[in-house]
Amino acid sequence: MSAVWRASRAAVKRRRLQTFVIGLVVLCSTTTILLGLGLLAAASAPFDNAFAQQRGAHSVATFDASKVSSARLATTARRPGVEAAAGPFGQAVLEMPEDWLWMPAGSFSVVGRAEPDGPVDRVHLLEGRWATAPGEIVVNWPVAGTPGRDSLGTELRPRGGPALTVVGFATSMSKSAGGWVSPEQMERLRPATRQMLYRFSDAATERELRAGLTTATARLPADSLVTAQSYLALKRAFAAQADAYVPFMTLFGVLGLLISVLIVGNVVSGAVVSGHRHIGVLKALGFTPNQVMAVYLTMVSVPAVIGCVLGTLIGNAATGPILRVAFAGIDTGGAQIGTSWWPSVLCLAGMPALVVVTALIPAVRAHRLPAAQAITAGSSPRTGRGLRVQRRLGGTRLPRAVSLGLGRPFARPGRSLLTMAAIVLGVTTVTLTTGLTSTLLAFVDDDGATRVRVEAASTAGGDTDRRLSDRRTEQQLRSLPGAERVTVRGLTRVSLAGHTEPVYANFYRGDTRDLATHVVDGHWPDRAGQAAAGPAFLNQHGLSVGDRITVRLNGEQTPVTIVGRLSDGNAKALDSNWQTLRRLDPSFQAAEYTVRLAQGADVRTYVDAVRAADPALRPAVLRPDNTVTTTVVGFSSVFTVLLTVVASLGVFNTVLLDIRERRRDLGMLKSIGMTPRQVMTMTMSSVAALGVVGGLLGIPLGMVAHRLVVDHVGVIVFPEFTKQVWHLPQLAALMLAGVTIAVLGALIPARSAARLTIAKVLHNE
């Protein structure tokens, strides 16, 4: 084995460029694969960790207090299939007439619990202490972080209820309540419902959850169960934002893996072909066929392991910033967002193994090669198909250097196919990135109009009393010079019948033409009792266009029909109109207005006019929020550069091997008068043809990949016009991508071939 190691180490030192190519290819591929696997793992790992730590409830069930007693509810904890249960807890709904703690006015549910711990749903206290006396409340903070200790002591004044002092902030991965009070305080709120928290023995699917809940509540009155919230819906909601990045990152990882396999196979195959004499010498010295094969496998394993380790380190370092963007503002219940261990282990074990398996086929060729044939083999390839093609091309009007170059791929068809496949995948990557960028830019394009958001003092946090009423404010904003359209939004929290977690509702009036352009299915809600929502909201609540829900606010409720699906939207919000809001709260006063300015209007003049009209108004110029667009385009560009470099390295290796095999031919061509420029032309022509074919094949593959990605981003439904991004000039430019990859990879070896001297070649021979 020591002899094998010494021979392998010598081969690594002698083939430094090929060793570098293998290491760099594996490094880039490992990085891209690790990024995709890391995000895929993180999409659910933080939720799973926090949910397990808090003993989260598989089902949060709410029962009508008038139809079932607490004693009967307590017996459900001992039913078959129930692993653990907590409750019953009294539950009431508080109506907040004004914005509170940076949250909009509206309803939220509170539950009476004596302590945050328990067998199910151990609430994680973020700040302050637990509510233990009447008049105290702990608020569920729904996003990452807390509002700070300065917010403790804030007094909440719900409509028709007692004042409550905030003594703590907490979070529950089960989303079991918007706040918690002591059981004594809950009795004073006269709860209309009671809450039970269940963990079931079998809860991996929605079907198992429904079966477990049905068994647990089988002996209760049939109509006593009001709502039941599944933890699987919460898990989907948690991962929704990260899922937007998973499709394209996974695809880039697959592309990187395929390119690695092709190039490693090409490198090892070329090493065997160009190393016939080396193989013959090893066998003549007494190396067995198995030892010769081990030498070549070890030769590729060393740089593969080094590249894999470095790629894993770089991938883990880059995953952190990506995860911070993907999970920005998401509550993790105290769990840290970080990389899991298994993607790193999988890459560290899998990538070198993949390289060895890829290298095994050409290494077997070295195993079978007889020593006499190997040691007497010349460095030039056998004449045959390549020479015949070159003769036919020589009969055309093409320059001789070009015809010789175009015939070279036919001399080594297997190697040429592997190289062309790498170019095809490189062009596929460039095409995919170009399409993604064009789609996202078309999606966020707001026609260039300037928009100003105006908030009243109650929303903006000012101390100045509002001079104008809601309707007067809208009229004033329309009358100011430069205003073209005014859209009014009323934001409040509402509850949905059948769902325990409150949601946000946007009620609009005024000019809603811009909003209607985001509807991809159905139409914008233009009548009372209609609403629209984004795909994330609809998926998490099990809704589709045409379904009817019941919306509750301030003790009132109204049926609402989903009439439109938006291209995107908050997973916790739905959009409706002012007519629907009047059914729920006729006295609601809007505090946010979006003004679209006319073309050429002076923004500063309009902003000053708004402030002069009412000091309580806070105008601000809207800037487009392109966070997701910037992230996707940025990461796609990085992956494209990496994979393009890798594809170019594949071309580099092919040309380098070809030049080494043809040193004698190059010397002979130079001896009969071929100039260095003609040598470069010949070398470039040999790969330019592969680049053209690679472009022709890679462009349609990239278009298919683009369609797959944009059609499977769960949180966004791209309108059809944003997918139609391919135009003739753009496709012509993409055609050059294959040639560019080929030329970049061949440039350095071609210059090296042009500088070869006849004397040096003859001396080596």
Describe the structure.
The protein is built from 27 helices and 20 strands. It has 765 residues and is α+β, with helices and mostly antiparallel strands. The longest helix is centred in the middle third of the chain and has 38 residues, at 289-326. The model is unreliable at 378-382 and 459-464 (pLDDT under 50). Strands 1, 2, 3, 4, 5, 6, 7, 8, 9 and 10 form a 10-stranded mixed sheet that branches. It has a 6-stranded mixed β-barrel with strand order 12-13-18-15-17-16. It is elongated, with a radius of gyration of 34 Å.
Short description:
By secondary structure, this protein is of the alpha+beta class.
Which properties best describe this structure?
six-stranded mixed beta barrel; alpha+beta; 53% helix; 765 residues; elongated
Task: Compile the SSE list and pairings.
Blueprint: H1 2-14, H2 16-42, H3 45-53, E1 59-64, H4 70-75, E2 82-96, E3 106-112, E4 124-128, E5 136-140, E6 155-156, E7 164-171, E8 179-181, H5 183-188, E9 193-200, H6 206-216, E10 225-230, H7 231-243, H8 246-274, H9 276-284, H10 289-326, H11 341-368, H12 371-376, H13 385-394, H14 400-407, H15 413-444, E11 451-455, H16 457-460, H17 470-479, E12 483-496, E13 503-510, H18 513-516, E14 519-522, E15 530-533, H19 535-540, E16 548-553, E17 556-566, E18 573-577, H20 578-584, E19 592-597, H21 603-613, E20 618-621, H22 627-661, H23 663-671, H24 676-710, H25 720-723, H26 728-754, H27 758-764
Parallel strand pairs: 3-8, 5-7, 13-18, 15-17
Antiparallel strand pairs: 1-9, 1-10, 2-3, 2-9, 4-7, 5-8, 6-7, 11-19, 11-20, 12-13, 12-16, 12-19, 14-17, 15-18, 16-17
